[in-house]
Design brief:
heterodimer; A: 763 residues; elongated
Chain lengths: 763, 227
């Protein structure tokens, strides 16, 4: 009861204390809301992306191994899998590519039809509707695909060769990214197809899903699977752990960025609120002394300050948290849909509650601590009142030699050295992050539009026989052309990783010249250059042996001459001589790579290629069908950059407001001496410049020397991403910082001008 | 020089509202020193703030150097203070991080301040006998020295009116007397000193008492007291 009464008394006092300082309260609440918004954005995106794959894999009962191969009779493949060790279950499908599907006014001829047996383990999650029932004209659509086409449950779609099928469910299968990053996928029942076409012979399969008892033995099972796969052509393995690594790599960048930014926002808000609370407590020292003199305990004084902070922080944190979560839940869910992963849903409740507690606890602690310290001092000293200006022995000598109010403003800010450093570091970090966002956006654009970002020097490919390369070279506008062989191989010892093997008959650097990281270019017919991603995955270095298991079933062994930096296929690349590849696999598929004369028209050359009977296509960029993913990433980056800019603005406003609050007598004396609004603005401009100039320097240096290189490594350890901000980006960011400073000065000067000189002089 | 007519001012709100000035009128000429005496809380400082344009009366009108103060905006009032008014405060109100000389110079660096401020500041510092301690911080100065620097700051832009609020309130007797003497010697300026210390009356050309919100001549008050 006594505790309740004390709390009630503290609550009443807190309300009374809040009333007269509405503007400062609003400013403090803004800071808390901003930090909470940033934190909840980090929680939503971090939880969504960080745990999305696990959630999706769990829901879909994702197999440990997915093997794709040329079509084989189902019984034959089943017998081979059943013979593998440690297998707890398997499911066989037929995956038909380039299938036609139409519905809701859309039509595609390149969809992937998965013919499944609904009675066996599935490997996909039903997120709406129900699963297929054997023998009915039903279809399941991938969720992203259904959303993109606007298909609802119960609608009818038309499948090539099958006619109308009723949509009974939507699915997510995290073994591949969703539409439109990948081709549209839909699922049909094997029994229905067998009934329709009256097939009683052993049906074909070309995809096997395998569940292991103990996933730790994955490598051993893969080795065994490879050994018993004779007769299966073009076999490719994907593993659950391999899929997870790929997705984590992409999500990791976004999560790390958001977490770093939310920490900055929290530290900024915490530091500013602590400074503000300290100034406020100093200002109220006399009142605290009176309360202590009439018998209020130190704990009661602290409690009333803590409750006061709670009254501001709780609603501000709630609003900020809600805004941040609502702003990011949509883009994060879209991103997850693209990745075939479910949104976090109610699972977010607990992390968001934790974020709310943190957002409230920091300001409450930041307020209670100075109150506790102040209330602990001698009552007589407290009754003497608090002058928040630096005085007595703490005052440092300033110099005005030949300069005026701006210098005074700068010196007033510099008088609080710890806060100056904290604010400069905060602004510097924010500046560095904005620069990083801009550099990232530029890098994404380059990857999206410029094949050269992948080291590709050819612009077109043509589906023509290799012996037609000289005829292609003769086309006006063509600088060089050569057959480009490409196969997906596996490492003989670690079969979970696929390797993109590329071969040219002559020097490949004429067409593809990814940056050499170590070693040298390949020279002989028994050498290979490997991507840094592959080198890292397999522990390869110049001088190592690369053992490639080719789709034909043969093995190709080459000596690694050098390691190159390539973004393509996550750096799991190998450039080999065409002679070596063709000796091992004479049927390796090829196209003609066409390098154009600078300035020549690709359209004209493409027309000439068509005349030769080829289907020319543009050289692929790193993004390709990933454009929607890039768009979502850009949305998130943009939102983060905006919040980051607001953090800068808030830090500047708080720093200027604190300077005015703490030095209100100085400002009042100046105003009494005849300083008008312009003079106050000059004073604050000096204060803002003292913060902004070093922060700009810190920001640019941090981005150039630390964040850019670090993120570049984080984003793709297998390639060099150009994440150094350009001069234009630096100037734009500094311009933004200057605008934020100008806004802060104008706002705080306006507020200062409204204060009564008489009241401020009286302290 | 300074004309105030029918000034009324209420401070506080609701039940705490109190009429501190009730139709105060005052005229001060150049070269005249007027002392306004009154008990603590009688409204002396409020009157001074109104005369200097730091606060606005509820009713009444103030004219300073031919310019009306009442009804003017913050910007205009700041300009009037800069050019026509010098304030001297009881607590000196020097900026702690600036030396005595720099505190004086600061007023000359305000936008719109008359040119030649540095020369005037140097001259004032010498005239007030502060050259020796010009580079000292306020905490290194005696109370009397601090108040003299504050007076130098008030005078540096050449105001026609000096308003001193309890200028000797924080000084011992000797320093207080020196400061009063200094204010007495400000030739060519109107000086209004508000204080509760009767010593100030000794240097004033005219002594007024603020009683119950009204100004009364010193002689009349003394006469009433003797009766």
């Amino acid at each position: 009861m006594r505790a309740l009464a004390a709390l009630r008394a503290a609550f009443g006092e807190a309300v009374r204390m809040l009333r007269p300082r509405r503007r400062r309260t609003i400013l403090g609440a803004l800071g808390i809301a901003l930090a909470a918004a940033m934190l909840s954005a980090a929680v939503v995106v971090g939880d969504g992306l960080g745990l999305g794959f696990d959630r999706a894999a769990r829901a879909a009962d994702l197999p440990d191994i997915i093997a794709r191969f040329d079509a084989q009779p189902l019984g034959r493949v089943g017998a081979r899998i059943a013979a593998l060790p440690d297998v707890t279950g398997y499911s066989l499908r037929f995956e038909a590519t380039n299938t036609g599907i139409a519905g809701r006014g859309h039509e595609r001829g390149d969809a992937v039809a998965e013919v499944v047996d609904p009675r066996r383990r599935r490997g996909y999650a039903i997120v709406a509707g129900r699963d297929l029932r054997p023998g009915r004209r039903e279809v399941l659509l991938e969720r992203g695909f259904a959303q993109a086409w606007g298909v609802h449950l119960g609608d009818t779609v038309y499948v090539g060769g099958l006619g109308p099928q009723r949509v009974v469910g939507f699915v997510e299968a995290p073994d591949n990214v969703g539409f439109p990053l990948a081709k549209p996928r839909f699922y049909l029942s094997r029994q229905e197809i067998e009934q329709r076409f009256d097939t009683d012979h052993d049906p074909d399969t070309n995809l096997a899903e395998i569940w292991l008892r103990n996933p730790r033995y994955l490598d051993e099972v893969l080795v065994q699977a490879r050994a018993t796969s004779f007769g299966l052509h073009d076999i490719r393995f994907a593993t659950r752990s391999g899929l997870r690594v790929l997705l984590d790599q992409a999500a990791g960048i976004v999560i790390d960025l958001l977490v770093a930014l939310s920490v900055i926002a929290l530290v900024t808000a915490g530091a500013m609120l602590a400074a503000s609370a300290r100034a406020e407590v100093q200002r109220r020292l006399g009142t605290i002394g009176v309360r202590r003199a009439v018998g209020a305990s130190r704990g009661h004084v602290t409690l009333s300050h803590a409750v006061e902070a709670l009254l501001v922080a709780a609603p501000a944190a709630t609003i900020g948290l809600a805004v941040g979560a609502l702003a990011t839940y949509g883009p994060a869910s879209r991103l997850l849909t693209l990745l075939n992963e479910p949104p976090p849903g109610t699972g977010l409740g607990l992390p968001l509650a934790g974020a709310w507690l943190l957002s409230v606890a920091i300001p409450v602690g930041a307020t209670a601590w100075p109150a506790w310290m102040a209330a602990g001092g001698p009552v007589v000293a407290q009754l003497g009142g608090g002058d928040v200006s630096a005085s007595g022995a703490g005052a440092r000598r300033l110099s005005l030699r030949g300069r005026g109010l701006r210098l005074l403003g700068a010196r007033l800010v510099a008088a609080r050295r710890v806060r100056l450093v904290a604010t400069v570091v905060t602004l510097g970090l924010s500046t560095a992050f904005v620069l990083l966002m801009l550099a990232l956006a530029s890098a994404l654009s380059a990857l999206e539009t410029d094949p050269g970002a992948l080291g590709k020097r050819y612009q077109l490919t043509a589906s023509l026989a290799p012996d037609l390369a000289p005829r292609v070279r003769a086309i006006p506008g063509v600088q060089a052309s050569a057959p480009r062989y490409q196969v997906l191989a596996a490492d003989s010892f670690s079969l979970g990783e696929t390797i993109n093997v590329i071969a040219y008959p002559s020097d490949h650097t004429e067409f593809e010249a990814p940056q050499l990281v170590s070693g040298r270019r390949l020279r002989g017919s028994h050498e290979a250059e490997v991507g840094a991603g592959l080198a890292a995955a397999l522990g390869l270095a110049p001088g190592s042996t690369l053992a490639l298991a080719l789709p034909s079933g043969t093995e190709l062994r080459l000596r690694v001459s050098g390691v190159v930096s390539s973004l393509d296929h996550d750096g799991r690349m190998a450039f080999v001589p065409a002679s070596a590849l063709l000796a091992a696999d004479p049927s390796a598929p090829s196209q003609i790579a066409v390098r154009l004369v600078p300035g020549s028209s690709p359209a004209r050359v493409a027309a000439a290629l068509r005349a030769l009977g080829a289907r020319p296509s543009q050289a692929t960029t790193a993004v390709g069908r990933g454009a929607p993913l890039v768009a979502v990433l850009r949305t998130i980056l943009r939102a983060v950059a905006i919040v980051d800019g607001l953090v800068c603005l808030y830090a500047l406003i708080q720093a200027c407001a604190l300077t005015v609050q703490e030095r209100r007598r100085t400002v009042a004396v100046l105003r009494a001496c005849g300083a008008g609004p312009a003079a106050v603005r000059q004073l604050l401009t000096g204060a803002a410049l003292a913060l902004v100039l070093p922060a700009a320097l810190v920001g640019v240096l941090l981005e150039r020397l630390l964040f850019g290189p670090a993120l570049s490594r984080l984003a793709a350890s297998y390639a060099t991403l150009p994440l150094g901000a350009t001069l234009a980006e630096v100037l734009a960011t500094l311009g933004g910082l200057a605008i934020a400073a100008a806004l802060a000065v104008a706002w705080v000067a306006r507020q200062a001008g409204r204060e009564s000189v008489v009241a401020e002089l009286a302290g | 020089m300074l004309r105030a007519e029918g000034l009324t001012k209420t401070v506080g709100v609701g039940r705490a509202a109190r009429l501190v000035l009730n139709g105060v009128s005052l005229a001060v000429e150049s070269d005249e020193v007027v002392a306004v005496l009154g008990r603590s809380g009688s409204g002396k400082s409020t009157l001074l703030h109104l005369l200097g344009g730091l606060d606005a009366p509820d009713r009444g009108e103030i004219t300073l150097a031919g310019e009306r103060l009442t009804g003017r905006g913050a910007r205009a009032l700041a300009r009037i203070r800069l050019l026509h008014v010098g304030f001297v405060f009881q607590q000196f109100q020097l900026i702690d991080e600036l030396t005595g000389a720099e505190n004086v110079l600061l007023a000359t660096r305000l936008p719109g301040a008359p040119a030649g401020g540095a020369g005037r500041a140097r001259k004032l510092i010498e005239e007030l006998g502060l050259a020796r301690v010009a580079d000292h911080l306020p905490r290194e100065l005696s109370g009397g020295e601090q108040q003299r620097f504050a007076i130098a700051r008030a005078l540096v832009n050449g105001p026609e009116l000096v308003l001193a609020d309890e200028p000797t309130g924080s000084l011992d007797g000797e320093n207080g007397a020196a400061v009063l003497e200094l204010l007495r010697g400000l030739a060519g300026r109107a000086v209004v000193i508000v204080t509760h210390e009767p010593e100030a009356a000794g240097i004033a050309d005219r002594v007024l008492h603020l009683i119950d919100g009204r100004l009364r001549l010193g002689e009349a008050v003394e006469e009433e007291a003797s009766q």
